[in-house]
């Protein structure tokens, strides 16, 4: 700002020094030229010596700052702008003699007149002189001193110096104020952008003025960009996390697939080996008696039946996990359903010698898929019967909550190890493999339970209690859609 003001003042000083004098001479030459034309016009109209031309002649001399003399060819004075005609006539003769001076320079010329720049050696001053011959043969001379222009140029330069000094100081103060008001917000925006590159989205531009300017709008737009960038990065992180979860899930699926194939192979290996062995024995007639053949056939049929049940359970689990079965949500009496399951399992209950306690006096209406809930309770009851020990007691009871009922199946016996509580829902996982194999369990039943409850969007679980283990599930009791 200071350099701009100083440069402007310096430029004005250079222009004033170099061109003001030339412009003044050019302009004065035009005045002299117009003056000659007006005097010549008066000569042509023969009014040069009349009283009507007095005012015009005086106006030409005063307005143009000229001294002028008009003389006849015999050197008698016709008109003069000064009182000392003798001196003026002498100077006119000096001009005529000075036209041959090498220092004289022609400024302009026209028909009948010439304008010269001459130096008055006696006064040591420069003059602009116009002399010529009028239409009626009279001689005319006018001159104007150039000393005033030198004085004006010097005065103007001093004035420019003073004004320029004041302008530079004022410009410095103004520049400081403007810099403070403009650069401070820009520096704030610079710091804001730096913090944004470091992903610091807490940095915000604050507008302190009521009348916003372009920088304030830029700051607001940077705030908006920061918010959108933060949201975009958040979305990218969420997408990245989702991708990582998908990759982990894919890895888990691959591991589960490998484990599934291994478990299926292991579970099918034993019954297939038994079937093959006993079938070869029948073919080779190891025992010819009918009783032995019946025994061999019963073993083959029993193992084939176990394989058939396991395959059916695997197919059921596969449909549940991949959503292949449609849900039929309806309202039914859970108490009646449980009573039916207990009745259907009466032979197994008698063989195991367990005591089942269930209050079947009051109905309990729930909303769910009745067929799938029957599968869940059947699995719970089957596990409880096979693992019941000591008192061999099984308790089936309800726990009413705000919008659901918890159905629990408790059996006395050994607790499940704490590290195995969450693993019982995994396919083919067996806490006690010996006992599971003893009663023909495949390790799929609880996996089916978990898949059914997930499809119904309800909870199920297991925990150890004093003297036994409790399996539970929750079902809706309100008349509303519970399946999304």
Give a written overview of the molecule.
The structure is a single chain. The chain has 484 residues and is an alpha+beta fold. Helix content is 57%, strand content 18%. The protein contains eleven helices and 13 strands. The protein has a six-stranded antiparallel β-sheet with strand order 2-1-6-5-4-3, with helices on both faces. Strand 10 (393-400) and strand 11 (404-412) form a beta hairpin. The longest helix has 70 residues, at 214-283.
User: Order of strands across the biggest sheet?
Assistant: 2-1-6-5-4-3
End-to-end distance, in Å? 71 Å
Measured by DSSP, the beta-strand proportion falls in 15-25%
- Series of H and E elements: HHEEHEEEEHHHEHHEEHEEHHEE
Average pLDDT across residues? 80
The structure class reads alpha+beta
């Amino acid at each position: 700002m200071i350099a701009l003001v100083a440069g402007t003042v310096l430029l004005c000083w250079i222009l004033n020094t170099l061109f003001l004098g030339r412009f003044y001479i050019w302009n004065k030459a035009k005045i002299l030229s117009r003056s000659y034309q007006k005097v010549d016009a008066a000569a042509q109209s023969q009014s040069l010596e009349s009283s009507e031309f007095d005012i015009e002649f005086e106006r030409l001399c005063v307005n143009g700052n000229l001294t002028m003399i008009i003389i006849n060819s015999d050197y008698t004075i016709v008109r003069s702008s000064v009182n000392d005609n003798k001196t003026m006539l002498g100077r006119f003769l000096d001009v005529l003699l000075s036209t041959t001076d090498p220092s004289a320079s022609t400024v302009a010329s026209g028909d009948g007149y010439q304008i010269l720049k001459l130096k008055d050696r006696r006064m040591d001053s420069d003059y602009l002189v116009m002399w010529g011959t009028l239409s009626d043969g009279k001689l005319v001379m006018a001159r104007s001193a150039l000393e005033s222009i030198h004085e004006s140029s010097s005065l103007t330069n001093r004035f420019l110096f003073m004004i320029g000094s004041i302008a530079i100081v004022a410009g410095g103060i103004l520049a400081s104020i403007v810099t403070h008001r403009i650069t401070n917000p820009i520096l704030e925006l610079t710091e804001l952008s730096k913090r944004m590159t470091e992903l610091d989205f807490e940095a915000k531009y604050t507008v302190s003025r009521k009348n916003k300017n372009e920088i304030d709008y830029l700051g607001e737009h940077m705030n908006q960009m920061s918010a959108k960038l933060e949201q975009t990065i958040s979305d990218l992180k969420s997408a990245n996390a989702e991708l990582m979860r998908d990759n982990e899930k894919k890895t888990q699926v691959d591991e589960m697939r490998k484990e599934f194939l291994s478990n299926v192979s292991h579970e099918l290996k034993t019954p297939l080996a038994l079937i093959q062995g006993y079938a070869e024995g029948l073919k080779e007639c190891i025992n010819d008696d009918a009783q032995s053949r019946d025994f061999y056939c019963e073993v083959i049929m029993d193992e084939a039946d176990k394989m058939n049940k396991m395959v059916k359970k695997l197919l059921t689990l596969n449909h549940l996990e991949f959503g292949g079965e449609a849900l039929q949500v309806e309202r039914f009496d859970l108490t009646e359903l449980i009573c039916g399951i207990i009745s259907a399992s009466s032979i197994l209950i008698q063989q195991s010698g367990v005591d089942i306690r269930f209050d079947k006096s009051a109905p309990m209406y729930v909303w769910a898929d009745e067929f799938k809930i029957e599968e869940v309770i059947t699995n719970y009851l089957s596990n409880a019967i096979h693992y019941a020990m000591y008192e061999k007691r099984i308790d089936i009871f309800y726990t009413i909550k705000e919008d659901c009922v918890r159905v629990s199946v408790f059996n006395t016996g050994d607790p499940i190890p704490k590290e195995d509580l969450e693993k019982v829902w995994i396919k083919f996982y067996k806490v006690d493999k010996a006992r599971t194999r003893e009663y023909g369990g495949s390790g799929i039943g609880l996996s089916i339970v978990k898949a059914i409850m997930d499809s119904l969007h309800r909870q199920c679980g297991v925990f150890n209690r004093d003297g036994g283990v409790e399996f539970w599930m929750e079902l809706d009791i309100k008349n509303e859609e519970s399946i999304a």
